[in-house]
Write a structure and sequence with these properties.
This protein is of the alpha/beta class. It has helices at residues 18-28, 44-51, 65-76, 78-87, 92-103, 110-123, 151-162, 175-181, 199-202, 209-221, 235-240, and strands at residues 34-37, 57-61, 168-171, 187-191, 226-232, 246-252, 260-267. 37% of the residues are buried.
Length: 278
């Protein structure tokens, strides 16, 4: 099941897990829950589940203020955001200008920050916000800065998401704080923390080993509701959750040059696990 409901490109995005999550929801009869992503990023799986009507509502959370501004803007300033998409030329001059807005975001309005984040996400290598532009700063590469910026398709996705705004909640909290608010059976939680091995290279908000350990402690000792959790296949993370049921799976890590990587998904004890398929 290959769906791309999200307008964001995100390193390690999990829209590929949509079919598995659909099967899990059906098997466990969880259709009436709110689906929560504490580390939402591009929120690909969340949006797919909502648009396919597998869940009543979704909660998109990200501790990165830039990402939060993007989601908030497309839901609350949809018309203005779409106008920016249509009217902003995709070139290096605007790349520098919008990068400056994102890097100094506290000086700007949420709409400006949200659009700057979106622009860089679409124009940078593999969607990494702190990477360089596709084609290089001198635009001498085979692909140019606008290679992943199909305005028609992107506007269609943004408008479609906006139609569901009453069923989408967005927040900008630390994941540990959010988990305390959703720790009951009205929620199905999917956690996709920053990669352990490559987190510093891919995300503006990454985790140190101590952060991963604290998260694992809370999930295993205090989280009572249904949850799933994915990590890159790292021995340190597998050791943290070695008492939980898990499945290994392959994922396409790179957007521009497809490359398979291996990850692992863990499950809370009370979930029935369907046969794994993507």
């Amino acid at each position: 099941m290959k769906l791309t409901s999200s307008p964001m490109r995100y390193p390690g995005g999990k829209s590929c897990l949509t079919k598995h999550f659909c099967d899990l929801i059906k098997l466990n009869k969880l259709n009436n829950v709110t689906y929560v992503e504490p580390f939402a990023g591009g929120a690909g799986a969340a949006l797919n589940l909502l648009l396919l009507e597998y869940v009543n509502s979704i909660w998109i959370n990200d501790a990165d203020y830039n990402i939060y501004c993007f989601w908030y803007s497309i839901l609350n300033y949809t018309k203005e955001f779409v106008n920016l998409v249509w009217n902003t030329e995709v070139n290096i001059d605007n790349w520098y200008r919008l990068r400056d807005i994102m890097n100094r975001h506290r000086k700007y309005k949420m709409l400006d920050i949200g659009f700057a984040t979106f622009f860089l996400n679409r124009c940078n290598h593999s969607g990494v916000l702190n990477a360089g532009p596709i084609g290089g700063k001198k635009q001498e590469g085979k692909w140019k800065i606008n290679a992943r910026f199909n305005k028609n398709n992107l506007v269609k996705k943004i408008l479609k998401i906006s139609y569901y705004k009453e069923r989408i909640k967005v927040s900008n909290e630390d994941a540990s704080n959010l988990l305390k608010k959703v720790n009951h059976q009205n929620y199905l939680i999917y956690l996709d923390p920053p990669y352990f091995k490559k987190g510093k290279d891919l995300y503006l908000n990454y985790y140190e080993i101590s952060d991963h350990r604290l998260l694992a402690k809370y999930i295993k000792n205090s989280l009572k509701t249904n949850w799933m959790l994915t990590y890159d296949n790292a021995l340190e993370m597998i050791d943290l959750y070695n008492d939980k049921r898990h499945i290994f799976f392959d994922i396409n890590y790179s957007i521009n040059k497809p490359k398979k990587g291996n990850e692992v998904i863990f499950y809370s004890d009370n979930l029935k696990i369907p046969s794994f398929s993507m």
